[in-house]
Amino acid sequence: MGSRRGFSQDGMADRLNPTLESKGIREHEERLRKALPSRLTAEKKAEEARAAHRRATEEAKLTQEKENEHKRRMEELAQLHHMKCSECGLDLQLEPVKEFELTAPTCENCGGIFITQKQIAEIRAHYSVSKKVARLGRAVISLIHKDRKPKEPSEQSQSDSQEVSTLAAANVHYMKCPMCGLDLHSERIEEFEIEAPVCEGCRGIFITQDQVKAIKEHYSVKRKVGSFLGAPISLSKKHREKG
User: Which residue among 4, 21, 110, 217 is buried most deeply as judged by most CB within 10 Å?
Assistant: First the structure.
């Protein structure tokens, strides 16, 4: 009897083990099925992150290449047009501009002068007057402007081959900044009451000898107007002090 009961218990254990084992397998498979979407989602997000990183790297590379190309182009333009006259294409030489008490690139052929923004400020300071006087000065000044056209070299001073070379230089450098090589555009310079080519990059201006004289005359008139207006004010002040 005891032996039969023991056999019966062993047989029941044998029957239960496969059931427990299959249950454990099913639970494990269920956990895997539940974990699979999360794992796939994580892998998808990781792949998207890698793809975004690749795109960002490629875009940064393209941007850097464009910046390098732009920088190279600007350097080429600056080198091509450096110290070349914006009117006739000939070489500019640093010469003193006595009217403004400064030194600037000057063309020996047409007399054009290139003035930087810093030098414009120096000219303004050299001829400094009050805004009120400046307005009155503008009211009494009238400047005549001539159309700017490329000047052809004199046939008496150059050979035929030199003429061709000079005209080619004029075409290459005409209305190009002699400092940075970018285009010059004609603009109204209210400070000097002239119209002159202005660089779209460094904002330097290219002026003729006639415009140099006009600027000097412009400030000379403003000073005279200022002195004329200042005289009654000075007399009135002295009169009040005496009173």
Answer: 110
